[in-house]
Amino acid sequence: MMFCLSFSSISSNPLRVCVVGSGPAGFYTAEKMLKAHQQAQVDIIDRLPTPFGLVRSGVAPDHPETKIVINQFSRVAQQERCSFLGNVNLGSSISLSELRELYHVVVLAYGAESDRSLGIPGENLKGVHSAREFVWWYNGHPDGQNLEPDLKSTDTAVILGQGNVALDVARILLRPTTELATTDIASHALATLEESSIRVVYLVGRRGPAQAACTAKELREILGIHNVDIFIQESDLLLTPVDEEELKSNRIQRRVHELLSKAARSKPKHTGLNQRELHFVFFRKPNSFQESKERADHVSGVHFEKTVLQGVSSGKQIAIGSGEFEDIKCGMVLKSIGYKSVPVDGLPFDHKRGIVPNDRGRVLSDPSNPLVPENGLYVCGWLKRGPTGIIGTNLYCAEETVSSISEDLEKGRLIPSSALPKPGREGLLQLLHDRNVRTVSFSDWEKIDSEEKRLGSSRNKPREKLATRDELYKTIS
Ligand SMILES: Cc1cc2nc3c(=O)[nH]c(=O)nc-3n(C[C@H](O)[C@H](O)[C@H](O)COP(=O)(O)OP(=O)(O)OC[C@H]3O[C@@H](n4cnc5c(N)ncnc54)[C@H](O)[C@@H]3O)c2cc1C
Ligand SMILES: NC(=O)c1ccc[n+]([C@@H]2O[C@H](COP(=O)([O-])OP(=O)(O)OC[C@H]3O[C@@H](n4cnc5c(N)ncnc54)[C@H](OP(=O)(O)O)[C@@H]3O)[C@@H](O)[C@H]2O)c1
């Protein structure tokens, strides 16, 4: 309590907080910290010149309403006690130990920027991409521009996984480009999609329709695309008693199963022109990717093993190979089996779960000893929980992390290092200046934002994303 008073009464010694990552977890953490601690000064750093994480580079272009949360995040960044510093990469611009020297509290909220891998033969063939790369590409992420997926040499794509990301990428491949043209989709992606010859998409799950990871609203949307015929084997929809037990306690999955059952019974729409097919395939796990005989190093299909489900614990069934195999021929594969966080030097990391070990947001170097967390180091969002949950989930996650910080401040757990004033933002800016790191402020971002909106308005789009670092910097210089 004494320590808490020393922060709140000495304005020259603010509580210096650095949040790494400007996605939902980072912004919700900043918002909660500023509210809970009137003497806190919060700096949000991001490796990109643009803020908002997956709200900008993940959420699908045809879901503009989801991106409205950006207004709330902008109001946080505009507060006097908050600042955004883009183009600051934890790990290359600055190390974790340096950041901890500069700030009393460091909250890591840098998400999950890699992919789970299948570890099966052929995974590196051309034409096999992760959904993350594909999403970055169509959303104008500066690191996604070079993907250049070949959508012209094939009429068939296979998507592995049946979560909401899988539905997003399937929808982008199938939706008429006239509908995408008025979204904030990157212009390079729209041009490629306009020339796409992909007509058939397989969405393949290793388990059954009762276990599909997508949610009902997103499923209803893709089932409703007007030029797409849906194919589902009715026999796959039969429920075992264990499935029925699972569905009883899960309203969303029950709804998903109902929607799939209805779609399986529906007649093809036959709208004629530009007709496309979406096949939901269940109980198949990828065994290997096949190489094309005509195009060396290029994928030509996926070799699947049929599966059966086996209960491992109450309410949880896993897919087991049945020894029967089947191929699906295709010219492109998108692996949508989940994102993965990556560690930085000096950070405790659970490689198996792909998260930072933590006790309600407090980073633990020894997970078996939650009573001794890392001093002043916290975690939030996908890096804390793993790569699941919608934007709103990160609000609760941030509340938990901030309440751990508040508790540690109140109980004096942060006293030894943080009773001393810390350099915070000034120290960070000096260090970055010495290293020739060109930082991007929130007002710089506002210039980018205006320019993107201006470019978009002439094309009937909400914005035209500047998709390279060069274009972004040109706008603010
Ligand atoms: C394709 C896709 C679509 C989605 N669509 C929806 C949707 O429609 N609705 C919904 O509610 N949820 C959606 N979600 C889920 C939602 O986006 C996540 O729950 C949320 O973004 C996770 O927040 P986060 O802050 O942990 O990570 P992120 O949003 O990924 O933010 C992490 C930030 O950290 C930065 N960063 C990474 N590494 C470093 C580093 N070394 N140094 C500095 N900064 C770094 C990144 O640039 C990024 O800005 C979607 C997810 C995906 C993948
Ligand atoms: N509109 C929205 O609200 C929206 C949009 C996009 C994303 N999101 C959210 O973002 C989060 C991440 O979505 P996500 O789709 O990446 O993840 P997800 O929901 O966890 O789905 C992952 C999918 O990959 C499958 N999978 C995992 N490992 C596999 C393997 N080795 N082989 C074959 N299949 C495998 C899973 O099958 P099993 O079930 O068998 O493991 C599941 O079908 C989710 O919480 C999602 O709801 C929301």
Automatic annotation (TrEMBL):
It catalyses: 2 reduced [adrenodoxin] + NADP(+) + H(+) = 2 oxidized [adrenodoxin] + NADPH. NADP(+) binds at Q162, G163, N164, V165, R206, R207, E218, G389. SUPFAM superfamilies: Nucleotide-binding domain. It is found in: Mitochondrion. GO terms for molecular function: oxidoreductase activity. FAD binds at A25, L54, L90, W382, G389, I390, I391. Keywords: Electron transport, FAD, Flavoprotein, Mitochondrion, NADP, Oxidoreductase, Transit peptide, Transport. It is an enzyme of class 1 (oxidoreductase). Its main location: mitochondrion. This is NADPH:adrenodoxin oxidoreductase, mitochondrial.
